[in-house]
Amino acid sequence: MINNPLPKLGAIPIKDRMTFAYVQKGELDVLDGTFVQVDSTGIRKHIPVGGVCCIMLEPGSRVSHAAVALAARVGTLLLWVGESGVRLYAAGQPGGARADRLLYQAKLALDKELRLKVARKMYEFRFGEEIGKKIPNYSIEQLRGIEGARVRSFYSQLAKATGGSWNGRKYDHKDPLKADLPNRCISSATACLYGLSEAAILAAGYSPAIGFIHTGKPKSFAYDIADMFKFETVVPVALKISAQFPEDAEGETRRACRDIFRETKLLKRLIPSIEEVLAAGGIDIPPPEEDQVGPAFEEEDGIGDIGHRS
């Protein structure tokens, strides 16, 4: 007799996954119960979809209904991106905001004082406690001014340390290829980080759209979270790669980002960091209302993150 049966299969927690995979010039499908990429010659390449945080689909890729359904079932975010990931066109949603988490996040964002507390915590996370002591009475606009000056300095220092050139952060979303090599590499690198941040936000049960520093965009909160980590992860990598002028600079950048995400254990840090900055608001997740109607059928506890659908 088996005393401890295996748990029901479900989504793997974000912290235990591979960061991301890129798919180009092939069709994603489910064949013989397996998530595969099929090229023009019919050769199959297996993709462990449940073990990947997000899959970025480049031009030339196609995806079947069965593949999208399986990705959603195992909590893997699908992103439709431009060549080298420099533009994001659309995103699937493998989980999504839970009502209690969404109300909590919205209350923090709508209250001016609470929003400011969360924003201050984000800046403390990025720039250290020493700046946290100097900003208790600063507005969001003043915090952005501090951020702008420091970010420009960081870019210049990192470019100098890697031996590359730097003429400022310049990016035209209508024509990404007009940018110089350092900016193109940074755009490819940050696209990877934005994808991971969005996947973590959804897995934690929150909305990527409700930001605290960034606002008014579908991925405002993803930008907020990604900015907390980009100068310790993707920006140094992108500038280092661009200084070497490789033939496939964007591809080299993506592969180097995957390595740095693993080395810094980023996936294990994302969801705890999201909870930490939101907790700075000093309020609790709201309990259900007394007259609230609960679910008709109670769901079994899954083995994934709280935002993953069963």
Key features of this structure:
310 residues; Four Helix Bundle (Hemerythrin (Met), subunit A); 2 domains; four-stranded mixed beta sheet; flat
Question: Would you mind describing this structure in some detail?
Answer:
There is one protein chain. The protein is of the alpha/beta class. It has two domains: 14-91, Ribosomal Protein L15, Chain: K, domain 2; 99-279, CRISPR-associated endonuclease Cas1, C-terminal domain (Four Helix Bundle (Hemerythrin (Met), subunit A), Up-down Bundle). The protein is built from ten helices and eight strands. The protein has helices spanning 65-73, 99-110, 112-127, 129-132, 140-162, 181-203, 220-227, 234-243, 249-263, 266-279, and strands at residues 18-23, 26-31, 34-38, 44-46, 52-57, 61-63, 77-81, 88-91. It has a four-stranded mixed sheet with strand order 1-5-7-8. A four-stranded mixed sheet has the order 4-3-2-6. β3 and β4 (44-46) form a beta hairpin. α3 packs antiparallel against α10 (266-279), α6 crosses α10 (266-279) and α8 packs antiparallel against α9 (249-263). The mean pLDDT is 82.
Quick one: CATH superfamily of the largest domain?
CRISPR-associated endonuclease Cas1, C-terminal domain
How would you classify the helix and strand content by structural class? alpha/beta
Based on the coordinates given, report the CATH architecture of the largest domain.
Up-down Bundle
How many separate helices? 10
Number of strand elements: 8
| Morphology | flat
Sheet with most strands: strand arrangement: 1-5-7-8
